[in-house]
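Limitations
The structure tokens in this dataset are predictions for the assembled complex, not deposited experimental models. Users should treat interface geometry with appropriate caution, especially where small molecules or nucleic acid strands are included. An illustrative entry is reproduced here so readers can see what is and is not provided.
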Amino acid sequence: MRVPPAPELLALDTATVRDRWTLREIIDGCVRHRFGAISPSRERLAQTGVKEAARATRGSGLTVAALHGGGRFPAPERKERHAAIDDTRRAIDEAAALEARCLVLVEGSLPGGSKDLAGTREMVRDGIGKVLDHARAAGVPLAIEPRNPMYCADQGCVNTLAQALDLCDELDWGGTALGVAVDVYHVWWDPQLKAQIERAADRRLLVFQISDWLRSSKDILADRGMMGDGVIDLPLVRSWMEAAGYRGFHEVEILSAGNWWRRDPDEVLATCRIRHQTAC
Amino acid sequence: MRVPPAPELLALDTATVRDRWTLREIIDGCVRHRFGAISPSRERLAQTGVKEAARATRGSGLTVAALHGGGRFPAPERKERHAAIDDTRRAIDEAAALEARCLVLVEGSLPGGSKDLAGTREMVRDGIGKVLDHARAAGVPLAIEPRNPMYCADQGCVNTLAQALDLCDELDWGGTALGVAVDVYHVWWDPQLKAQIERAADRRLLVFQISDWLRSSKDILADRGMMGDGVIDLPLVRSWMEAAGYRGFHEVEILSAGNWWRRDPDEVLATCRIRHQTAC
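Predicted assembly:
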């Protein structure tokens, strides 16, 4: 028997409303629809500045579940790789200023022209390794987000939970500075999903993102579904997360050019609230 | 140093020219462009009938590297599952009539409305198990094709080489009736790819399909690239296949609604021939 999740665990990744609302409007909307937390991207913060964003979220009573950004470590030139590391240190500082529970990295992938996937993955490992002390000092855990393999060429070359957890073990053995973001859209297909969530355990499970995979999906970039509209058994995955000890937020991230991005964000948030109770 | 592959190993999956040519024209085209083999789908055979197709390929001197089809095992009703098993036995007979080196299964995935991925995967396992004796008797090995996870909802729920090889071990331990089709488009991203090709070894490596992943790809269904136009290190993957003992064909399968399907098939085949030598 599915027990509906605690309503206050609902959180919003701000990409779900794209640019229809400002950060201020998103915060008000989340309060109005009784979300427990928000997770902005750094691009979103740039619109208001970090201080103003921190002030607004603090005043709203919302938790900042995660800041998304930083990373993009792979680059052909050493200078560019250093710049990405510096930029990720700034992202860590921004997450600290926001009192975000973690920073979810955008790992990055093959630099233009490169076909060296193994070498690119080493650059990601080395990049994370180089910002980890800064993250520890700031008290901001870093989350590696395994991305659907269809994003391997450009967005992220960490593509399974096993691969992400291998990185955690290699760089942060026994520690709590590094963990993973489990986004059902990216990992739902993985035959190892249950086993790897168990392996991760509460210590490594930093973020849980929800949406759905639409059976008829043709678009790689922005055709994610509302919870309940697709094929993912969300209650099952949630039960695995909870069995592993995860007690954090359920963060909605729906990139949907053809549907949800076109709708009034108030309708989108109201639908998220209902589906969180009925389909997760 | 990359050594170009033996030219006679080039093979054509007939889907690459879609419906611009009949099977007869494809056979003539493959002979003209000195391909060593073709691999038709069952749908393609249906156009001429199996006997006529067998006569035409035999007369051409081309090898039939594989027949593609059969499978689609998951279904809600027992009756439908039995029908899929019967149909796959017919596909095995057709492969035998064609003297195809193997039958590449289309595993199938979640029946309409289902979110039970584990149960669906069990239906695939059971379905393969039930046709295996027929395949042994016919002398037609079956190839499981792990498909890119973005096809997990509809086309195939076997999504990694490890998962496919686990099925081979479970159903055909120590045997040669079951193997895998390694299509770079489906598996190029897999951090376990090299290790699993080694594990498969010559005995399980039945098919090697080539194309490329376009960096800017937005379309899930039909936006595959010509070898050399994307990010896959094809010579590297070929070297792993060869190190594992694979000596079979290199079968081009390019589904490309926006580009290659629009071109004169003679141009497509000529380009395949050149790229096989320069980019694989």
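Some entries come with short summary sentences. For this one: Residues 117-138 of chain B form the longest helix (22 residues).
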